[in-house]
Amino acid sequence: MDDRQFRNAMGKFATGVNVIATEVNGEVHGMTANAFMSVSLDPKLIVISLKEDAKMLNKIKESNRFSVNILSSEQQEQSMIFAGQKKVEEKFEFDYLEGVPVVRDSLAQLSCEVYNEHVEGDHTLFIGKVTSLELQDGEPLIFNCGKYRGLKEMEKAII
């Protein structure tokens, strides 16, 4: 199998959309990601996966803290900004949760400390210990087959 075929197969798995954020020397850095999952309740651990050449990788190693922001169906623009798909004139304004930058109005904001890290293939898996979280009601932003989708759109596809 070639790389494109593998990517297409992985794209069949519908995922939520997250923005990962951290702060180094007073400068906030963010990136869109969908490689995220919960790992443990005790202790409360999550995992994110970053490609070895991602700029965010060294930023998280340096800060040892990051946030995971689970985006709502109304935050496609924010996802596109942090995926480098959309340019903005103004500087993006972050809120803070326990001193870690978070994306305002996300369905969930998780403040994390790096608990462990593992290099696997061409990615580093960061295990994050969740130190605080904030929740809001709403519908999640979903990514499937290379497109943004909402739950209602996914429900119609199933029926």
UniProtKB/TrEMBL annotation:
GO function term, MF aspect, one: riboflavin reductase (NADPH) activity
GO process annotations (BP): pyrimidine nucleobase catabolic process
Pfam family, one: Flavin_Reduct
Residue stretches making up the Flavin reductase like domain: 10-150
Superkingdom of source: Bacteria
Keywords: Oxidoreductase
Record's keyword annotation contains Lipid metabolism: no
PANTHER family for this protein: FLAVIN REDUCTASE, FMN REDUCTASE (NADH) RUTF
Name listed for the protein in its UniProt record: Flavin reductase (DIM6/NTAB) family NADH-FMN oxidoreductase RutF
